[in-house]
Amino acid sequence: MATKIxxxxxxxxxxxxxxxxxxxxxxxxxxxxxxxxxxxQAMLHRPDLILCDIRMPEMDGYQVLEAVRDYRSLKTVPxxxxxxxxxxxxxxxxxxxxxxxxxTKPFTLSGLLTAIAGRLQREALRETDxxxxxxxxxxxxxxxxxxxxxxxxxxxxxxxxLLLDSYDEFSREDSLEMLTMIKAxxxxxxxxxxNPRLLEELQQIDRVPSSYTTGSTMFDKELVNKAIGxxxxxxxxxxxxxxxxxxxxxxxxxxSLGVILEELLDNAFKFSDGSHPVKLSGxxxxxxxxxxxxxxxxxxxxxxxxxxxxxxxxDRDIYEQQGLGLGLxxxxxxxxxxxxxxxxxxxxxxxxxxxxxxxxxxx
Length: 363
Prior knowledge:
By secondary structure, the protein is of the alpha/beta class. The protein is 50% helix and 18% strand. The chain has a five-stranded parallel sheet, with helices on both faces. It has a five-stranded mixed sheet with strand order 7-9-10-12-11, covered by helices on one side.
């Protein structure tokens, strides 16, 4: 299929001449005599590149460009301005809005074709890079998902089969131990299913008030101990945890606060080496509440801190670890939506501290 180029130009002679020159060089051409008509054409039949005059009545080129960049399916379409003059202020304004290039009238055929080819090539490279990253992400998700779904399922199926086939041969203690492992595996599997859905919901909120971003919750030891209990049930852990917390009313729903606590504590427990207890310290500020969670174990490298993203786990090829790599991404998104923040510091000695700042509910 031929590359489609949309030409938006109100001067008939220029529009027809440019269209003919471009068409003769193998491109499929669509034209529009007004900015409004051109925008409609772009929305109905997405072009591969847009050539647009700046000075047009009713809707000028800047307005067209702004509308194009606001339209999701057109955001990345290369956009070249055609202009009778190219003052620095005009160029700067266009670049701020997202223009890719300028051609000053009168321009040569070679200049026009070079600009078109250059922008199309850059877009092709961008698309290739994007597809490569998407393929890498799909491979990562498939690999993580396969492990996170199949491991607990194997445990559930295996112990359930043993109990069904040989129930009378096991002592009560053995049966309870197997049932406990079935429960832990079921909770782990549920979390692996729930977290992708939760992250997707959070990404759709974008600062619009919701049950995740509104509310008020008392932050205290009882709330923390509930989160610790849920983690221990799922991970079959019994990690020593020291609490030094001041109680405070936090401007966050209990669900969201529980998610943040559980995800951060889950990581602290999971990556501790057992030599030191996990520590939680919470202090009231004038308008904020500062929570610090510290553990001793795997070092969180500085270059990894800035690369936190969904479905990204660090050094998984070296260390066995549970999860889909969504925990910190979920915490970051919740804090962003509620005007909180998080800072991670990790020392070469193995101590990692996460400082979380919540907004307090001021009475």
